[in-house]
Amino acid sequence: MSPLRSLSLRKRLALLVVISVLPVVAFAAADAYLNYRDDRARGAERTLEVARGMSLVVERELQSAIAGLQGLAVSRALRAGDLPGFREQAERFLRALPPGASIIVADADGQQLLNTARPQGQPLPTRGDPAVVRRVFETARPAVSNLFIGRVLQQPVVSVDVPVVEDGRVLYDLALNYPLERFAEIISQQRPPANWTIGVFDRAGMTVARVPNAERFIGQRASPSFYPHLIARNEGVVLTQTHEGVPALTAFSRSEPSGWSVGIGLPEREFTAPLWQSLMMTVLLGMAFLMLGLGLAFWIARGIAAPTLARPGGDRSGRPRSHRDRPRRGRRGRASVAPGDRRTPHGRIATRRSGSA
C-alpha cells in the first residue's frame, strides 16, 4: 500500500498546503538574495567611480603645486645663491596657498639652507625625507614624497620637490611642505555620507588624510585587511575591516605619477541589512500563509469527515470501513445469525448468554 494512501484526509491536505507554500517562500528568499547581489555590485561600481574621481582631484592638487613651484624655481635670486632675496619671493608665493605651507631649499646632502617656517639665520636640520631629495638630484625631475615627520615642525607633512637647474646641473632641491588639512578639505568638498570611511594614502600605504577620526589615524598604515590590496593593485573593490573594526566594502584607486591612492569604505551592513529585512519578511509571511493554509485544511478535512462519521460505515479517521470491519451477511443480504442467537422484536440480534434457563 502506498504511504500516502495510509494517511488521513487531514494529513493529506496539510501536506498539500506545505508543498504549495514552501516553494513560494524559497523563491522569494532567492529573489531577495539576488537583489542583494545586484545592489552590492552596483554600489561597488559607483563607489569605485567616486574613488577614481577623488584620486584625480588629489593628483591635480599635487601637480598644481609642482607647477607653481617650478615657476618659483627659475628665480634669478635663487640661482645666484641669494637666499635672503629669494625668501621674500617665497613668502609672497605662500600667500596664495593654504595656511601652514612652507618653502624649503636644500642641497644634495639634504641639508636645509632655507625654511620659511623658521626665522632667517636660525640653524636648520637636514630634510626629514632625504630619499626624495636624492631622487630629485638624480633624475632632475619633480617628485612627491611620502608622509614623513618634518624636522622643524616635528609633525607629519608631505612635500612636493622640484630641481633648481642651471646649465644642466641641479643646484638645489626646492620643496613645498604641503599642509595635510588641504587633503582633508578635498574629502569634505565631496560631501560624502556620514557612514563612509575615506582615506588618502601615499605610495607606502600611510594615511595622509582621513574621515572620520583623522586625529587618530593620520600617519598610520592602512588597516591590515586593506593594506595588502592597496600596495599590490592600482584599483579594485575588496571586503575589508576598518581601523574601527567595521566590515566595509572598500573601493580604491591609485593616480599617477604621484602613486597616491584614495580609498572609500562603505559599511557592509548597508547592503546586508535590506537583505536580512527581506528574508525576515519573507519567512514571516510564509509562516503566516502556512498557518492559515493548515487551519483551512483542517477545517475542510473536518467538514468532509463529519458526514462520513455519520454513516454506519464511517470511522473517526474519515475513512470508510473496510470489508473486514463490516458485519457478515447471508446469501440474501441479511446479517448472519450465529447459532444460539435470536432476534428481538425490533429486529436486533441478541446473543444468548451461556448458562441461562
Give an overview in words:
This protein is an alpha+beta fold and 357 residues long. It has a domain at 67-179: PAS domain (Beta-Lactamase), CATH 3.30.450.20. 43% of the residues lie in helices and 20% in strands. It has helices spanning 9-73, 76-79, 83-94, 130-139, 181-189, 214-217, 227-232, 269-310; strands spanning 102-106, 112-115, 143-144, 148-149, 156-166, 169-178, 197-201, 207-211, 235-241, 247-254, 261-267, 342-343, 349-350.
Short description:
The protein is of the alpha+beta class and 357 residues long. It has helices spanning 9-73, 76-79, 83-94, 130-139, 181-189, 214-217, 227-232, 269-310, and strands at residues 102-106, 112-115, 143-144, 148-149, 156-166, 169-178, 197-201, 207-211, 235-241, 247-254, 261-267, 342-343, 349-350. Helix content is 43%, strand content 20%.
The CATH superfamily of the domain at 67-179 bears the name PAS domain
Q: Whole-Å distance between the termini?
A: 50 Å
Q: What CATH architecture of the domain at 67-179 would you give? A: 2-Layer Sandwich
Q: Shape, please?
A: rod-shaped
Q: Low-confidence parts lasting 5 or more residues at pLDDT below 50?
A: 347-357
Structural category is alpha+beta
Q: Return the string of H and E elements.
A: HHHEEHEEEEHEEHHEEEHEE
> Count the strands?
13
Please tally the helical runs, counting DSSP H or I stretches of 4 or more residues: 8
